[in-house]
Design a protein that fits this description.
The complex is a heterodimer. By secondary structure, chain A is mostly beta strands. In chain A, 5% of the residues lie in helices and 49% in strands. Among the domains of chain A are: 1-74, Immunoglobulin-like; 77-207, TonB-dependent receptor, plug domain (Ferric Hydroxamate Uptake Protein, Chain A, domain 1, Beta Complex); 615-648, no CATH class. The longest helix of chain A is centred in the first third of the chain and has 11 residues, at 237-247. The longest helix of chain B is centred in the first third of the chain and has 26 residues, at 94-119. Classes of the chains: A mainly beta, B mainly alpha.
Amino acid sequence: TVVDEFGTPLPGVSVIFVGTTTGAATDFNGQYRLTVPNDVNEVKFSYIGYLDQVLEVGAQSIIDVTLQPDSEQLEEVVVIGYGSAKKEDLTGSVTAINASDFNQGAITSPQDLLNGKVSGVQITTGGGAPGAGSTIRIRGGASLNASNDPLIIIDGVPLDNDGVSGMRNPLNTINPNDIETFNVLKDASATAIYGSRASNGVILITTKKGQKGKLSVDYTGTVSVAKVNETVDVLTADEYRSFMSQNFPQYAEGGSSQLLGSANTDWQDQVFRTAVSTDHNVAVSGAVKDMIPFRLSVGYNNSQGVLEQSDMERTTVALNLTPKFFDDHLSTNASIKFVDINNSFSNEGAIGSATAFDPTQPVKSSDAAYAPYGGYYTWLDAQGTPMYSIAPGNPVAMIDQRTDVSDVMRSIGNIQLDYKFHFLPKMRANLNMGYDYSKSRGNIAVSPEAGFDAGAVDRDGSFSRYEQIKRNELLDFYLQYADEISGLDLKYDVMGGYSYQYFRNENENWSTFGNGEQLENWHTLYKQHNNLQSFFGRANFNLKEKYLVTATLRADGSSKFNEDNRWGIFPAVALGWKLDKENFMAGATAVSQLKLRAGWGITGQQDIGPNFGYMPIYVGSQPDADYSFYNPNTGEWVTVPTNRPSGYDQNLKWEETTTWNVGFDFGFFDDKITGTLEGYYRNTKDLLNYIPVPAGSNLTNMLTTNVGNMTNKGVEFNINTKLVQTKDFFWDLGLNATYNENEITKLTLTDDPNYEGVRTGGVAGGMDIYAQRHKVGYPASSFFLYEQVYDESGKPMEGIYKDQNGDGKIDESDLVYSGNPAPKWMFGFTSKMTYKNWDFSVAGRAYLGGMVYNNVASEKGHAQAAHTSGQVATNVHYSAMETDFQSPQLLSDYYLESGNFFRLDNIMVGYNFFNLFDKDINARVYGTVNNVYLGTQYSGIDPEIFGGMDQNMYPRPTTYMMGVNLSF
Amino acid sequence: CLNRLDLDPIDPNEDTNISTPEDYFAYLTKLYAGLSNTGQNGGDGDLGGADPGATQYWRVFWNAQEFPTDEVVNSWTDEGAPDMSYMTWSANNPFVLGMYNRIYYQISATNEFLRKSADLKLEDLPDWKEDENGDKPVYATEEQEQWIAEARYLRAYSYWHALDFFGNKVPFVTEEDPIGSFMPMPAGTDERGPELFNYVMEELEYLVSAESKLPAIRQAWLGRADKGAALMLLSKLYLNHEVYLGNKVAGYYEKGREHLSRLINEGGYSLYTQAETENYSAYQSLFMADNEKTASEVIFMIMSDSRSMRHWGGTTYLIAAGIGGDMDAQAQGINSGWGGNRATPTMVDNMELRGGDDRVMFAREDEGQSKEIDNSAEFQQGYGVKKWNNLQQNGTKKNETEGVFTDTNIPVFRLADAYLMLAEFDLRIEGSVSGVAKTYVDAILERADANPVSSINLDFILDERGRELYWEGHRRTDLIRFGKYTKDMNWSFKGGSPSGVPNLSDHLELYPIPAADLGANTNLSQNAGY
């Protein structure tokens, strides 16, 4: 048995006979078994973070070993931008999450592994569709209109932030099972090396690599079942009947123009299903001829969504080769990832239709009137034509009569050469060449019988398809020199390099109707590209192992700006002070580490949307927006394409975010308790805002230009404890908390105090109605609503709002700040327990202080929603029973609710079998539940909605999963 | 390698400059299309921050001209829509902002066209491209000076809208100003003052002069501007000058009448009096999908085409928004209605006053509508109006499969309007109508199959304009000119109440300068009363 200094068994320790390649690894109980060859007498035990031990074999049959930690090696090494650093020497805010800490369960997208694990990081899935994308915000986001997405770098290849057509989430390229670590870089000191793309943080994803040693095979297979927990609270058929008799007797049964049917249909029940998904992964790792370590993995995922016909089928292949040459002077890291995804998107519009469709109508009807529409019940006018422009579509027909599928292939790969100079081993050269290529194709077909679709039903169906090709290229090169001046007890390393990245994409669309009719050249082709080139450098100083200084500088040139603004300079400096190494701390034995960090830096944001926003661009018209003149002399029509000059801002430039960061890293009781406490202040200036330009001064009314300022300030705290560490029982507990406050401090050139701000948060149920604004003095996307007045019984009084300015009328000037969608507080917790062969883990999150606007209720929660023009009956949201609203009250703060929630994200129980059949086979069987419990007072389905507008989101199901893992 | 940062667009739909005659003509066409299309494809918008369809030029123009009058009640609850009917708009009203933005988009795009055209001459450009048959485009023989004149006409047309809706303190920019970020100065310091009026007047006086290269009257294609369009606009400017300037100027009515007489006498226009079939009257045919056939009466037209011009404004809006309830959408040539606009009872009474009139085209009780309105949000209250129609005179759609977008063109200015204006000039100058003008008015009544009139006074003119030109986007301007917009007249939901508020504050005659622009441009100041 091999144990650590506390007597805990160490699994995975390499045990090799010296001078041979024969050996074994310890199992989960730290045990190993070897047959001793004749000609050896020494055996070597080695394990990462521990000192090697070489023992004589002699005649003993059992060799028990206690490995001692290597104080040098114990230091966790963390991947940072263009290199790596020892964790204890970090001066910036970097959080590393390893595979063992990932969220568990039916996870198809990488970002879900991370959710709730890192303070300051908010990850919000867009809904429950298979492989759905997420919005990731690090420290609240630094931009308003430019992208707020962090830069994501996979094995050294930075991805662009634009989506990939036909893919719900570009991160689905990576199989979660292949990921080794996530490193989240949060402050400027850590991110400034990525300059103009760093303002919103950086996430580095590192995939698993092969190890020298025995060939190992790892198989994981899971089966999961997902179910919708709750549906939107609309009236049942009987409730709706009685509602109609009371409110609109003329449309109810027996009425003069009766609209209702005799069926009892729960439309939401019709469109949702119990979904079954499977996932299989095989990974083989080892070394070819003990020379070329490799890891090859193949994954297959087949996910069903809870909405009928929403599916994803994904095959991933990943290969990593990490050979070293010339006495380890040249390290090579070659990596290729390949994914093929087949998506079926279903028709998510059916989710909203299912809440609106009259529950007294059947799904299908044998009435001949509906035969042209596949027998699906469809609202028809007196002439028998579908009333698609005022009636909701039959939700089941919307799904069954429309297909929306895609096939995407994507590959990301790179080769990284790291050369330690033979004549000067302190000098390292690193060359990284990479690519990111994707090809997507998709088809959308609507049946000629589709009574919900105007174009399709009038023209024998409609068909469209799209293709996209993206080609991104990368080249990085840097030199690093590390040395020490022993007289001064100063270690230092300096690094400098160059990076080139080119992004290009082409999109092509076609669409035609089934009757062959198509608009002339009804085909579009779009091509875009941009280029980013950079020089960067970093210097680290470590004086007496106590005082740390890091300085970085990046110069970025982007093709998105005109020559005068093209280059941006992004500096950062950070200091670290290892207090625990000071003499005055020598007595404090409880303190195992204590470090104070302080940093300042400037980062930028160049992901501003248009690639050529600084130059005049003329845009041609598509064939449905030409202009047709008529020549009365010849009777001919002359159709002419048009040419539009676009508005532009030739002074467009980077957004700049200045970040101050102060943090403590601490460890107590031999690091049984470790954690970090950090505070930050971020100020973005030259914020790109899409603002009204003075009328007549430009070729548009709204322009993206650098005008605003915004601040984010916050505190982050995380703590990890090894609560129990005994022979049989381990319990790790982790907790993190984040507080963030956001405020817009400037938005326009003129600082007009009456400026109403930028409207955002479009409300469904009316045209051009917005619930949110970006306004100076308030957080981004703040809600501005009327303050509802209630009667004595607490019932909202329809149309009665507080007259805020006392001018005797209620108009836009009475809209007041009513909250904002971003949570002020975010908490995450993780608990992991191991008892003998059992393990049990739980993870959850709580968000406090954000608001959600219940648009599902406000759109349909009034009597008028019960019919359209007396021609179509439509269901009503249950809130109408409580409010008795007759007409929509879309801007009432009655619909604004607290978005506080606690979510138990996952629970897992696993059991491990070691040395199955007395062979070197380990197995594990486990079960998880994802999205176990949601505790909230929110009246809608789920308050976790990025942006705070609840508009018939694809519901997040609860997923039950069984999995098995075999390794040998 | 670093020079790879100097990228140019590679998109086939984008160009960094205009360099061929085709490019210039496509740009000129965009200036026309700005009155119709919302952007460079069906769903696209030239403007930001608003629904493109809802802020299409003619749709916002028509709403601003018709919602606050006796001709229309709208049932929609979209933000700002009831305020347009109730005359309770504020400086943040999205409809007001939509109109303002569309006007200034046209002006800015025209200014840039004129700047570009001044830089180079057509003859310096490469020759016209030939098509696959070896033919050059039909417009290849045209001159650059003509295009410049057309652009100036379009700019004057939009500036006229700015003057009419927002007054004299609006931003003023011409091709002399740069493109970029600066704050334009207002045209003048008073809401009712001479600066913008004089500018539009001088532009148009030049365009109608012998020097100008604008095509002679009725010598341009339908949809393009000729001297007839400029004469009509100039006459309208003079006719309304008392409103725009705040005082009467001696000789302006006479000048207006002079231009109008030239238009009528030189133009060879004639009323369209003979429909092709029995199914529809000649008057109805003016507003149908093949109304290019009524060209003899058309002075300026905004074109529609359900294939090549797809947007949610123009006649698509006019027709669809006017259909709802139990009305038969197919009879109006579209698949279904949007249930928005109806007539007020005041308009119904005025329409029916003279009896037996072809112009009366209501959806009444037999189609589920009621005349009186006590809830403006209920579409079936108020008579439907079936004047705008997407069928051709032969009863079919122009594009049989099309029922979503329309083909009906918009006769912005037509001869009947000019005839009524001539009579009005007579009344304003001499106090009585000349014999010629009387025959013109009689011709209008005769075409409409309405009872003849013995004597004509100004009250008759206003009422008759209501009967002949209703729902064509003239009413607000007419009511203001006759002093009956805020005072001395009442209709349902004027001021917001079902019975109407007869007298309102005069400041409502101008819309407020949108708050968005006041915030962006500190040189501007708000109109009085807002």
